[in-house]
Amino acid sequence: MRAKTEIDADIAHIEYAKSLLDDQCKALKAERDLLREDNYIKDKANKRLAEFFRDKGLFIVSIHSGERTKDHYSLAKQMWRSREVLLPFIKKLSSNKAQSFEHEVDNTNKTIIINLCDVMSKQGWLTFECVKNKLEVTPTLKGTQKYFLSGAWAEEVTLYLLDKTLKTFAKTKSVGHMLFWDIKLKFIDSDKTGDHDMQLDLVAEVGDHFYIFEAKSGYVLSIDKWVDRTRLFDNEKCRFITCTADDKLKPLIFRPFRLFALPTLEEQFLEMLTDDFKEQTPAKAEKR
Question: What are the strands of the beta sheet with 177-187, ordered from one edge?
């Protein structure tokens, strides 16, 4: 049998060789990931945003833009337009544990809730029956539907409000814009095994500025993430903004971090854009 010192020496040699291979593997992964990053930079639609993230040591793993998923997007807009009536019902629907439940309605909100239930019924989210002033609701929710109702609707609403605001702003200033959502990012030197290190809800690219939005439907604002991402992204041409459905929170309390409330998002964002682009050329009037 070999001596313990001899075995220890062999183990040390193997561990050293393994550390060299690990370093080489890490370098190769970083080189591969740089090539993946370059693919987005070569894409004209994503080029400026990909370059922005590259300067922060990140590359894009996946990104979405253009046409939004119509069913969820339309449903979120319907919910938001009558939010005082519909959001309490949505909360009850998403948190329900029983096979079915009853929901009280009155003559002022009955049509609004029934219209929403009609849409959800056609999409296979629930079945319902209305008897006088009571709705008997039987949910048939699947995973993505539960996720949407439990809070992901806020991202859809934020996108809707940003789109409206940018179209309004475009009438006053000659500045191009694009909207991106569900942006997954990875640090170039990441040693994590997951497919991404960070996910951003929404990014508005306006001219040479970027506005990054984190959408929250409830009261938990994830302050640690808010602070870290503000430090990483926020500069003279980039803003990191947390959006909440709770308009009772006072933005001044959270300064220097930015808080927008969904009910006032259009007003707050338009004011920010107007200030950031006050030197920009006015938009040309449309010919009649």
Answer: 58-65, 177-187, 198-206, 209-216, 238-244, 258-261
